[in-house]
């Protein structure tokens, strides 16, 4: 038979009857639950994550922070939930300092930790943020074993390494957010210089989330047209340099680190997972021989879909880019070694 309704029934989906009235097949209360988005850290990035997750109705949002900041998290959540009535979004937003409220989360986005102050490098944060990530990992392991975890806390590549090691979660269910943000910064600078829409600029920034990250110019296009056709090598070099210190530029201006673009970047990754979009994005993923590296997390192109990190994509790099990646990988390895020694 080729009746599409029967094949839908075989897959357990909702059926559309001949009258056009929709009725459920096996959609019991389990299947009808809204998804749960756990945000660990209710600070600057956490708040903006909650705002975007609510406005885009990714699911019900739990904004978590330490007990000393429980009221703060609850207040922020209430403010955002009241915004939802104006935006017409039905997601609930709750503040909490109780991990039990995160039980069964579909996605966890982790910003717990301290951000940079002017003059600090991301690596300077390892001493403070390592025990915080370890604490978060122990709880995530206990309460959210099914979640797709996206780490934002810095130093990013080492924190995501420790988080996966502590939780023992499947490697494909743990990703670090850096490449999407760095690529967005790179794309903005290129679009402005070339005088083209940000929508048409394709960029890829690989390697660690530090000042020796690798903006891959050889893969950079304006909708397929090499970017070198629009911008001189000299200006491209300046844009690469600005991208590498793009986070620091904002820290210098604001006295703390960026939060709008980091939050939007993690939401792109969360949506790719929740909607099984199979998007090709740069993200920190566990490497097991890809690009010649193994046993750490570093930014590479990945495909994110319902299975988490479904593929790691190896793209051709020129000799310069390979060298830059080597340098960046060495920086990541050095911080991972610190983490291994302390852990
Ligand atoms: N569990 C949950 N939350 C925690 C924990 C913990 N164990 N420890 C600290 N936090 C919370 C802090 O109380 C604070 O509210 O994490 C929050 C961090 O918020 P901000 O200080 O505003 O920092 P933010 O700008 O959001 O950056 C967070 O992301 O980009 C990185 O470098 C940045 O590591 C930093 C992180």
Quick overview:
It contains eleven helices and 16 strands. It is α/β, with parallel strands linked by helices and 343 residues long. The relative contact order is 0.12.
Question: Which terms would index this structure?
Answer:
343 residues; alpha/beta; six-stranded parallel beta sheet; three-stranded antiparallel beta sheet; 16 strands
Mean pLDDT: 92
Q: What percent of the residues sit in helical stretches (DSSP H or I)?
A: 40-55%
Q: Any idea what the shape is?
A: globular
Poorly predicted parts? 1-27
Distance between the termini: 59 Å
H-E string? HEEHEHEHEEHEHEHEEEEEHHHEEEH
Small ligands present: adenosine-5-diphosphoribose
Describe the biggest sheet?
6 strands, parallel
Estimated share of beta-strand residues:
15-25%
Rg result: 21 Å
Helix/strand-derived category reads: alpha/beta
Question: In what order do the strands lie side by side in the largest sheet?
Answer: 5-4-3-6-7-8
Number of strands: 16
The number of helical elements comes to 11
